[in-house]
């Protein structure tokens, strides 16, 4: 399904100006959100982040128009399709040739929805440490921009090596993120995640997990650590809006007992409760 200019369109095809800077230059942002029971999980947080990112890039963004798009698609879920992944895309709009942003941009906003498998939530995965560096010197590294080619290439590399997802270090050799999510490591009662300055997106689930850590008996902290330190962790997991919290079974040749770790289990239970409450559904519907 596609939302465009206030209308739900069957399928995903609609006309687009081929000078749109999102298409020609990757000049824009996107957001991915989970909906359950016709409601967007952590809706306000998703909209706030998208609007803030647009402000950073100088792209006008209307929070209520974004909300209308998300809600219109969320309300289309029926039966097995009730669990949806909504991708909201905002570009700077059309413009003349060249890189310089137009002084008076007319943004393009559209959103799509597709079924999201319940089995993806909390499913374990293996991480392949890619040699592609996350550019922590770029402002784009901390935004969900349309330029995802590094992640695309790393995903292919991971799949070819028999892994589910890629793990990025930054230009200084510090662990930054997975290809499609934030990463956490457990060292005793310390719950560690890389700081945003290391080229990290401020993930919605990242914020939720950091907020839940204390009630789960953990001391949450941001720490800039090299990969060898992460390989010494008791457990590792990835968070994003569709996977929610994915225990990591291995990073390259190093295995982890993340699936059996009691702190991971407590965090999964707490996050499941938070998502259910946000969407007004039962915990069993979350995954």
Describe the overall structure.
Helix 2 (about 45-55) packs across helix 3 (about 65-75). Strand 7, helix 4 and strand 8 form a beta-alpha-beta unit. With about 290 residues, the protein is α+β, with helices and mostly antiparallel strands. Helix content is about 30%, strand content about 25%. It has helices spanning about 20-25, 45-55, 65-75, 150-160, 205-210, 225-230, 260-280, 285, and strands at about 1-5, 5-10, 30-35, 40, 85-90, 110-115, 125-130, 165-170, 175-180, 180-185, 190-195, 220, 235-240, 245-250, 255. The strands form two sheets. Strands 7, 8, 9, 10, 11, 12, 13, 14 and 15 form a nine-stranded mixed sheet that branches. Strands 2-1-6-5-3-4 form a six-stranded antiparallel sheet. The model has no long low-confidence stretch (mean pLDDT about 95). The longest helix is centred in the last third of the chain and has 18 residues, at about 260-280. The chain is built from eight helices and 15 strands.
Query: Judging from the principal axes of the Cα atoms, what is the shape?
Result: globular
Radius of gyration: 19 Å
> Count the helices. How many?
8
Report the span from N to C terminus. 23 Å
Question: What would you call the structural class?
Answer: alpha+beta
Biggest sheet architecture: 9 strands, mixed
């Amino acid at each position: 399904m596609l939302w465009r200019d206030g209308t739900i369109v069957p399928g995903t095809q609609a006309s687009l100006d081929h000078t749109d800077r999102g298409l020609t230059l990757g000049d824009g942002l996107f957001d991915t959100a989970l909906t359950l029971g016709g409601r967007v999980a952590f809706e306000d947080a998703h909209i706030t982040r998208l609007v803030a990112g647009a402000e950073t890039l100088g792209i006008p963004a209307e929070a209520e128009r974004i909300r209308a798009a998300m809600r219109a698609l969320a309300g289309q879920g029926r039966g097995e399709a009730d669990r949806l992944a909504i991708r909201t895309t905002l570009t700077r709009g059309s413009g003349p040739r060249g890189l310089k942003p137009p002084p008076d941009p007319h943004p393009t906003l559209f959103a799509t929805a597709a079924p999201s498998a319940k089995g993806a939530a909390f499913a374990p995965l293996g991480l392949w440490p890619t040699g592609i560096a996350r550019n922590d010197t770029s402002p784009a590294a901390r935004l969900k921009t349309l330029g995802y080619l590094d992640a695309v290439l790393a995903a292919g590399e991971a799949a070819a090596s028999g892994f589910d997802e890629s793990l990025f270090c930054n230009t200084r050799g510090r662990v930054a993120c997975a290809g499609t999510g934030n990463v956490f490591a457990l060292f005793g009662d310390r719950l560690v995640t890389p700081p945003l300055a290391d080229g990290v997106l401020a993930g919605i689930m990242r914020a939720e997990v950091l907020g839940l850590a204390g009630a789960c008996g953990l001391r949450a902290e941001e720490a800039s650590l090299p990969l060898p330190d992460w390989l010494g962790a008791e457990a590792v997991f990835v968070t994003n809006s569709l996977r929610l919290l994915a225990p990591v079974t291995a990073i390259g040749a190093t295995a982890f007992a993340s699936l059996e770790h009691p702190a991971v289990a407590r965090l999964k239970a707490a996050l499941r409760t938070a998502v259910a409450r946000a969407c007004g559904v039962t915990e069993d519907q979350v995954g």
